[in-house]
Amino acid sequence: MTRMDAPIFDPAAFRLTAEEAALTAKAREFGARVLAPRAARWDREASFPTDNYRDMHREGLLGICIPADEGGLGAGFRAYCLTAAELGRYCGATALTWNMHVCSTLWTGALTEDLEMEADTRAVHRRRRRIHYDRILRDGAVYSQPFSEGGAAAAGAAAFGTTARRVDGGFLVNGKKIFASLAGHAEYYGILCTEQHDEQKLSRRDTLYLGVPATAPGVTVEGEWDPLGMRGTVSRNLLFKDVFVPEDAALMPAGLYFQAASRWPHMFLTLSPTYMGLAQAAYDFCVRYLRGEQPGTPPVKRRMYPTKQIAVAQMRVMLEATKALWFQVITEAGPDPTKEQMLRALAAQHTVMENANAIATLAIRTCGGQSMLKSLPLERIYRDSRCGALMLPWTAELCLDRIGREALYEKGETD
Ligand SMILES: Cc1cc2nc3c(=O)[nH]c(=O)nc-3n(C[C@H](O)[C@H](O)[C@H](O)COP(=O)(O)OP(=O)(O)OC[C@H]3O[C@@H](n4cnc5c(N)ncnc54)[C@H](O)[C@@H]3O)c2cc1C
pLDDT digit string (tens) for 391-400? Predict the structure, then answer.
């Protein structure tokens, strides 16, 4: 019998919908039973959690954000974030890579309903996304999200250097992506690239979002993968050399990604649920350990020392503050946010990413030497949680950068 943890967001206290309550309960049960026992292996080997993906397909989780009338579970933004946080508690690498996959359905599904498109463009979009959704639901196809290139593009400050040139029936793609989680393991790479118009300068407005089959001639995976944390993400480099993709590979119509990034910026918050889950996991570990209840450790209680109690209180304060801010932000996410909502979203991202690691750091110091042995999950949580602040486009630094500037300057103001 798997021991069930309490929900991160209690359905009654946080007034979750019945759908959210059911999805988060399912994720918690699945995470504890399936993900947690396997997590150490992916981390040790820096190998991809293929078995987890097979099981997630069986559970319908690969289609969590595919609209219900198209065969998926129909989760919206908040329902997805809450569910992903529960999975992140049990295996950071699985939750993070699952996020890359889910975004290929959330961004092309629920999110596009809030964006403007001509009726015929929307009809083509619906027909095309159906092709991707069918592969996911029927075959368990997994999509990744390799955007980063090592320059300013993934931060949103320049056009992507990976290009797509129109040819008969489709596009020819050329370029390189770095840190491509699921490299060599996804069936499709959902890449962002720039449509190249002859000699014109590349423009962010011409960003295309294409689902490139991993088996297409000209696609190669290269480089080592031996990082500090999130080792199971297998984020190696991807090369595209004259890769042909048909028109129907488009996950969004031309111009729509630029509109989404400008009008629905909370889309970039989808990396944070994994780290919300890791923050909870670090706290849970510390409480269990100090109570002498952590499996794999002797039943020695350490909770009677005032220093431990203060540390746990500090962790709890950080956790509650993180949860409250994050919950508000995922609740109000939507198109055309106000300046206040935007500043709050950036603050939430920064808080989750930094506090997840701060709580894990404090948990290690408080529990002590035995708690950071590789036989226990805390040291993995500590390493995995360190990676959140580095994820573009909303790295912890870039969040601070934008909050400071946008709080002090109104649009058009300069000194
Ligand atoms: C475990 C893991 C998995 C990942 N998976 C994926 C994935 O699946 N897909 C994907 O696309 N990427 C992925 N990434 C990459 C990630 O989003 C970043 O692109 C990557 O961490 C950037 O590393 P870099 O050294 O190139 O950073 P740099 O671009 O050199 O940036 C270093 C720091 O400088 C700051 N900075 C960057 N640009 C600017 C700017 N314009 N102005 C001011 N400051 C700036 C930021 O704070 C940044 O953290 C992953 C990263 C990790 C660690």
Answer: 999 999 999 9
**Mean of pLDDT values over 227-255:** 97
Options 3.10.20.30, 3.40.470.10, 1.20.140.10, 1.20.58.220; CATH for 264-408 is: 1.20.140.10
Residue 116 sits at φ, ψ, to 5 deg, of -85, 135
Encoded tokens for 65: 């954000």
Q: Which residue has its alpha carbon closest to ligand 1 atom 5?
A: 181
Closest residue by CA, ligand 1 atom 45: 398
* C-beta of 174 in contact with ligand 1 (< 6 A): no
353 lines ligand 1 (CB under 6 A): no
DSSP state letters, 148-167: --SSSTTTTSS--SSEEEEE
Round to whole Å and give the CA distance between 333 and 336.
Answer: 9
Q: Which of 2-16, 126-140, 339-353 has the lowest mean pLDDT?
A: 2-16
Question: Is the CATH code 1.25.40.10 the one for domain 163-255?
Answer: no
51 Cα to the center of ligand 1, angstroms = 28
207 lines ligand 1 (CB under 6 A): no
Atom 53 in ligand 1: which residue has the minimum CA distance? 387
Instruction: Give φ, ψ of 323 to 5 degrees.
Output: -60, -45
Strand segments, DSSP code E, in 10-150 are 143-144
Residue type, 264: W
- The DSSP annotation for 72-95 comes to S----HHHHHHHHHHHHTT-HHHH
pLDDT tens per residue, range 106-163: 999 999 999 999 999 999 999 999 999 999 999 999 999 999 999 999 999 999 999 9
Percent of the chain with pLDDT over 70: 99
- The per-residue pLDDT for 324 is 98
Per-domain boundaries in the chain: 18-140, 163-255, 264-408
Question: Model-level pTM greater than 0.85?
Answer: yes
